[in-house]
Amino acid sequence: MKKFIQFLIFIIFLPKNAVAFSEETVDFEVSEDVEIGKVIGKLTRLDGFTYRLSRGNSKIHFDPETLEVSTSSKLDHESEDLIDMLIITNPPSIIHLMIKVLDVNDNDPRFLNDFQQISIPETAPIGWRVSLSGAIDPDTNRTISNYTLVDEEEEEKEARIFGLFQSDGLIYMEVIEKLDRELKNEYKMRLVAIDDGIPSRNSSCLLHIQILDTNDNFPDFGIRSIDIKYNPKTDGNKIFRLNATDADEAENGRITYKVVENDDIFEISQDNTYLLVKNNTKLEEETKNTRDNEKNEKKKVTIEASDHGTPPLVSFLDIWIQVVDNLEGKRKNRNMNEPNINIRWVFEKTNWVSDFFGEKKKLKMIF
Ligand SMILES: [Ca+2]
Ligand SMILES: [Ca+2]
Ligand SMILES: [Ca+2]
Ligand SMILES: [Ca+2]
C-alpha cells in the first residue's frame, strides 16, 4: 500500500516536459575471430541525453562520446557466446547491450591423448577390429566429419595393413592384411581427425600398434637327418651340438630337446645343448659288426625339439652315428666338427646347421 501511494505521488508530480523512463535492449552480433578494435555497433543518440557504462565487459569497449561499441581484446565463442552490458542514460533510461559472439571454425579437433597403445595378436584374421578413442571438436557448431589413417613410418602414406571402420560415432581400426609378428612386430600409425568446417581443420594422434606373438613356428633344425662319425676315444661323450631355432618369441620360441628313442644309450646334456652318449659300451656293441670301422653299423637316434608354447610345437632330427675307433677312423675324423650331412633330406638349396663346436656351416645341395 505504501509503495502504491509513492507511485501515485511520482505520477502526480511528474514535470510536464519530462521524458518518460525507458528500458530497451540493443542486440549486436560479432564473429569471434574479429580483430581487436573493430567497431561492432553504435547506439543512436537521443537529443539531450548522456550515456555512461554501468556494467561492462573486459573484451568490449563502449565510447560514451561516440556511442560506438568495439572489441578491446580477442573474443572466444567457446568460452563466452553472449556478452551482456548495461548502459545508463541521463535523463534516466536503461539500455541492455546484448552482443552475440558467433562461432567460427577456429579450433582443431582434439584427442583426449596424443598417443594410443594397441595390441593385436598376429593371428588376428582379416576384419579384426580394435576400438579407438576418437576426437571431439571444441567448436560449438562443428563436428568430426572424417578420420584417416596414415603410416607414420612410410612418410605419411596411407596405411595398407590397417583400415578404419566407423559406426554410430565410434571408430575402429581394422586388420585388412595378414599380420606376421616374425616379419614386423610393431607399427606406428597416425589417426587424423578432420572437422566439417570450411575450410576444415585437422589434428592427429599417434597409434603404437604392437603385434603379439602366437606360437605359429615349429622349432627348426634346418635339416631332417645327419650322419656323424663318432670316436669315443677322441670325442669324449659329445656327439652333436643341438642348435635348432624357433622364430617365435619368449616361451613360444624356447626349445627343449629330448631323445625320442635309444635313450638308454643317448641323452641330452643338462644345459640342453649337446647330444651325449651315456653308454659308450652299449653303443659300440650295438654298432659293431667287424673291427673294420667302415663297416660298422650306424645307430640312429631321433631328437625331438619342443618349444614351450601352448600347445607346444615339435620337430625331429634323425642323427645316424657311426662309431669309429681305429687310426684310420681317427684320421678320417680328425676334423670331427665337419659332420657328414645327409643332404637327401634338405629341402632348400642352402641351409644352416651347427657343427660340433657350434660354428655355423653352410650346406650345399648335391643333386
Ligand atoms: Ca573445429
Ligand atoms: Ca569456434
Ligand atoms: Ca614356436
Ligand atoms: Ca609367432
From TrEMBL:
Subcellular location: Membrane
Family matches, as PROSITE patterns: CADHERIN_1, CADHERIN_2
Annotated GO MF terms: calcium ion binding
Top-level taxon of the source organism: Eukaryota
Signal peptide as annotated in the record: 1-20
Chain ranges passing through the membrane: none
SUPFAM superfamilies: Cadherin-like
UniProt keyword annotations, A-Z: Calcium, Glycoprotein, Membrane, Repeat, Signal, Transmembrane, Transmembrane helix
One Pfam family per UniProt: Cadherin_FAT4_N
BP terms from Gene Ontology: homophilic cell adhesion via plasma membrane adhesion molecules
Name recorded for this polypeptide: Cadherin domain-containing protein
Species whose genome carries this gene: Caenorhabditis angaria
